[in-house]
Amino acid sequence: MRNSRLYFIDIVRAFAILMMLQGHFIDALIDPVFRNPEFTTYKIWSYFRGITAPTFFTISGLIFTYLLLRAKEKNEDKKRMRKGITRGLFLIGVGYLLRIPFLAWLTGHFNTYFLVIDVLQIIGLSLILIISIYFFSLKKTYLFSAVTLVLAISIFVCEPLYRGISVDSLPIFLNNYISKTNGSVFTIIPWFGYVAFGAFVATIYYKNVHKQYFKEIMISIFTIVGIILISYSSAILVYLSKLFDIQLFMDSASYNYLFTRLGNVLLYFAFFYAFENFLKIPILLKIGQKTLSIYVIHFIIIYGSFTGLGFKHIFGKSLNPTEAIFGAALFLVIVCFISFYYAKTNAFLYVQLRKLIDKRKRKNE
Predict the structure, then answer these.
(1) pTM for this entry
(2) Distance of alpha carbon 141 from alpha carbon 123, whole angstroms
(3) Cβ-Cβ contacts under 8 Å for 159 (sequence gap 6 or more)
(4) Is residue 99 classed as helix, strand or coil in its secondary structure?
(5) Residues 198-245 pLDDT 10s
(6) CB of 278 closer than 8 Å to CB of 65
(7) Burial profile 256-285: b = 16 or more Cβ within 10 angstroms, e = fewer
(8) For residue 30, what are the β-bridge partners?
């Protein structure tokens, strides 16, 4: 059973990418007059949209680490590590490529906006960091598990310390990974915290997935811990602040979105794991396996990668809620259709990148 596929991972990935697609579509095109927190529908939509990125980062850390640990069983972890580094570099490269305005460059207009950091760069760098932690943990699963858990909690608790950080002395290329000053959508901290927590969860699966009643136990743990994080994590931080007289805990409690979002993610995991057998729908699993292609295609259509002309520029923020909802549904279908039947896979570029890295490695040896 240890080698059986965890279908709920693909299901969660499919759910996360579909939520991301509709979230980006509606956010980019809906008329600002309807973006009012006083509207209950918008408030609910906004709340669930806020869970999408944490879910995506957490599940990415889980699946990558789980595959890495499974490769260790076959003594193929070195191969998996090399593949992971290649994958990480590939994601970083694609992340930058999607923001290069080639037409503007051809007309002589240059700026540094293409250096802003988005989800792909953070996931790519996070995979490389996970591999580094695994390597420096001497490939010891228990040590790796403890390090990733402590690191995730520390990143979340220390968020007030780096919330507005910007190291202007660093080149903008590097500063964008730690600061949103220049327009970065995501930064490596706190978002790597979710990837690290996903890696920690993967170690639990690796060690115990074959055991009897493991699924039922994990569903219960996901549910209980998720509810605690959503409802009581702020109170726990306040209690710790008073107990140890540490202001950092109080500061973290006053703007506690990281732990509460993690609680939401765990409830998602509990739900999709519990109903895994009912949700093993081929098309849903396929969507979960095509997240990169879907992400790239949706980014090009909405934000106009390469050409600078996308839905965002054509329609602007002009749709009413009804148009936005039906438009988002149609958009999901079109993007998935293109991804399934017409998009070229990234296999060629990926293989070439791996060959280049292996060639350089052989030269260094």
Answers:
(1) 0.91
(2) 22
(3) 189, 190, 252, 255, 258
(4) coil
(5) 999 999 999 898 888 999 999 999 999 999 999 999 999 999 999 999
(6) no
(7) bebbbbbbbbbbbbbbbbbebeebeeeebb
(8) 319
